[in-house]
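FYI - complex with adenosine-5'-triphosphate, inputs then prediction.
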Amino acid sequence: MNNTLSPNLEPLISIRGLHKHFGDAHVLRGVDLDIYRGETVCLVGASGGGKTVLVKHILALLEFESGSVQIDGIELSGLSERALSLIRKKIGMMFQNGALFDSMSVEQNVAFPLIERGIRDDADLDSRVSEALKIVRLHGKEKMMPSELSGGMKKRVALARAIIDRPECICYDEPHAGLDPVTADTIDKLIKCLQHDHGITNVVITHDLRSIFRIADRIVFMYNGRVYWQGACDEMHASTDPIITRFIAGSDGDWDN
Ligand SMILES: Nc1ncnc2c1ncn2[C@@H]1O[C@H](COP(=O)(O)OP(=O)(O)OP(=O)(O)O)[C@@H](O)[C@H]1O
Ligand SMILES: [Mg+2]
């Protein structure tokens, strides 16, 4: 297993021995993973392999079974909801399928996490929505409804919602799904812009090989409920591991988990 980053760096997210069952299905089987500040990590692996379940543990959205998840050195397991909400503020999430509220305008969708946190000052909400929409290049679209937006615009609104509370890290679940290559490029540029211009740490779940090789500083490959391999893009290209070479060849649908 490779780790190209210095072991002296302090991880923002540190996961050790994480297990998760759903009934008889043993989905996470001892995941060990560190995510370092300021990097873009692509989390890859077979469909149904536990990538979304893993990221939900980073946000403490699932009940902990065994193992440890630490954010900035703070163990999540056993924290009160109040303490968790402070930790969750550090991590923005762009959920699989975008998940916008159809009955709400763009600005209402984007402001939602702030309103949930009890922020009611209209001027503050407006300026933060406007700042987030500027970053995703949707400034001026505040009053539009989700039904009036293209698929790519919806993803950008979802991204604006993920960054509205100024997180240190954003987890993206399949941000390229359903997008044409040009629109997927726009999302990739935004992901890298957030990393380079805003210092955000990115954790990107994706199957899109083109995007992976364009945005990843490090690729983390999950297999059999664990981190099977991790390394930089050139290390993945150079790998002779048959599971990794099959992944690069694009035949990622036929592994068993
Ligand atoms: N809340 C839940 N209750 C029961 N089973 C679940 C739940 N969430 C996930 N699972 C199961 O856990 C396994 C891993 O799911 P997960 O969504 O993490 O996969 P994934 O790697 O994200 O796949 P994909 O690439 O298709 O999104 C699947 O078998 C799924 O059915
Ligand atoms: Mg998933």
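The chain is about 35% helix and 25% strand. The domain at 10-90+169-257 is CATH 3.40.50.300 (Rossmann fold).
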